Amino acid sequence: MERLERLLQPVLGPAYGLCLRLTGNRQDAEDLVQEAALKACRGFASFRPGSNFKAWFFRILMNAFYERFRKKRPEGGAITLEHVPGRYLYNRATEMGLGRRYRDPARELVSRLGTEQIENALARLPEEYRIVCNMYFIEDFSYREIADMLNIPIGTVRSRLHRGRKMLQMALWDVAIEHGIITLSDE
Amino acid sequence: MTERLTCSDVEALLDDYLDGELSVADTESVDEHLALCASCSEERSFEESLLAELKCRLREVTPPPDLVTKVDSVIAASGHRTPEDPPIEP
Which of A29, A48, A27 is CA-nearest to residue A37? Predict the structure, then answer.
């Protein structure tokens, strides 16, 4: 097997997963992965052997995503940035007494949500937060790797990720209430 | 000797702590606080479990079974195949 193909094989699945989360469409995700693979092939001379191939490929992938989708997607933003309290789910779960009733209240909360509902919550984040959070949740990338892939400062990654996670907690709670997964009778 | 962290300090550092993004010294300071503070320790367990559960759920993606084949075909059709690896020397 040829070298690029061998390097690509283990990263195609995670790449597809990220694209699916970002675009919400299987065909778009597949097209993006193929486009990125082709660009990686054309630019393979710029890859330094021994360096982080996955980060290199994901940078190409994210550039492809920005070129094709960034301006097309409407800005979700059901959540505003003005007030983002910390530890939102922990505080709500504690108020509900979940910590007394369940050994692992976080697991209990997430188990009540369908994957689609978790995706729905993520989709409510403003785009720049949604992208960083998706990269964080889909792969165990370091802040440095995400910064390099998105070509933004590491401090920006940190602040978007921290704030995005707080917003996600609020969104998860809202989704749980909207779908009747958490009800007043729980409280 | 370093100054001990407060609960507010730990709350501010918790995301970086859980992500392994703190320095060794800061990680040890947070560990020291968590060992003594039941409230922060409970919060840490909750956040750690929440992240693990969300990562697990969001990674439940099954790529199309023919994705690798399709990518290979696209690369082959482009005429940009990379040169083969040199044979491994015995």
Answer: A29
